[in-house]
Amino acid sequence: MKNSELKKAGLKTTIPRIQILELLDSTDSPKHLSAEDVYKKLLSQDSDIGLATVYRVLTQFEQAGLVTRHHFDGVHSIYELNNGQHHDHMVCGDCGNVHEFYSEKIEQGQHDIAIENGFTLKHHSLYMYGTCSECNKKQL
Amino acid sequence: MKNSELKKAGLKTTIPRIQILELLDSTDSPKHLSAEDVYKKLLSQDSDIGLATVYRVLTQFEQAGLVTRHHFDGVHSIYELNNGQHHDHMVCGDCGNVHEFYSEKIEQGQHDIAIENGFTLKHHSLYMYGTCSECNKKQL
DNA sequence: TTGATTGCAAAGAATTTGCACTGGG
DNA sequence: CCCAGTGCAAATTCTTTGCAATCAA
């Protein structure tokens, strides 16, 4: 399981790595977490892991392709377990909820624009900010 | 000119503000600058403006809608004079060049997705990273 | 005049690094 | 056993703030 994912990435199997991987994978917790979020969550689960380690591990995971790093409007980085399928994000400014989506039309549009400009597209980041349906309802 | 733009924004006409506005507006310099870039550029033009002031002024400009702030993959914020017409960006990882583009198809796609999800879209950020045509040529 | 604005230095927030210690293979 | 991995504290980087001096209206 987690064990083999780490090995595949060339990383030794250690407590902090396992725990962070499990945390990111757990379905109950939000899937988009900052380093601080991960740190606090681990602390509240007994773990006496250091914040620096969280940063180091997340960075290694990112380099290994296990995790994707985002820069939502705010200041700090947000990490998300990489499930293999590309998607973009819709961030609700009211409740902070992050919704994932995929649009073939948008992907195509990007591809087209890149071609038009002789640009070799490696990756992209698209964030849509606004108010989610839940929050829209509440404000009635 | 600059003067009235500032007044319209409710900001007093001061040397730092004028200079920063002119810098951002000048066609010769890149249009996408970090606070540090602006600061260094001003220093090299005699000006003895403080870095803190650059940050303050850029933040005020952003709030006044005169300037748009971006968070390209890197760490620091990048500022750009707001010319009124929305556009997205293509960032070359090799030469650092930033190219602006606008795609009706992509904008439409975003609008569609938002509707589909009952999401009220306020704004978005789309950055495409890769290699620009110039750099592609050089690598032949 | 007078409150807005600035420069400087000091404070903050997020992230990284140095180093001695620990632990997985 | 041995080096990768870790915790802690100190260092960096980017940005914001406090405060006395300065300036535009």
Q: What structural category characterises the helix and strand content of chain A?
A: alpha+beta
* Quaternary structure: homodimer
- Radius of gyration over C-alpha positions of chain A, nearest whole angstrom: 17 Å
**Largest interface in this structure:** A-B, 34 and 34 residues
Q: Low-confidence segments of chain A, ≥5 residues, pLDDT <50?
A: none
Biggest β-sheet description of chain A:
3 strands, antiparallel
Distance between the termini of chain A: 46 Å
- Binned, the helix content of chain A reads 40-55%
Total beta strand runs of chain A? 6
- The coarse overall form of chain A would be globular
Count of DSSP-assigned helices of chain A: 6
Whole-number average pLDDT of chain A?
93
One letter per element, helices H and strands E, the order of chain A comes to HHEHHEEEEHEH
Beta-strand share of residues of chain A: 15-25%
Keywords:
homodimer; 140 residues; alpha+beta; 3-stranded antiparallel sheet; 3-stranded mixed sheet; 43% helix; globular; DNA-binding
Structural summary, described in words:
2 copies of one chain form a homodimer. Chain A is globular and about 45 Å long. The mean pLDDT of chain A is 93. A 3-stranded antiparallel β-sheet of chain A has the order 1-3-2. Chain A has 6 helices and 6 strands, in the order ααβααββββαβα. In chain A, β2 and β3 form a beta hairpin. Chain A is of the alpha+beta class. Chains A and B meet through α5 and β6 of A and α5 and β6 of B.
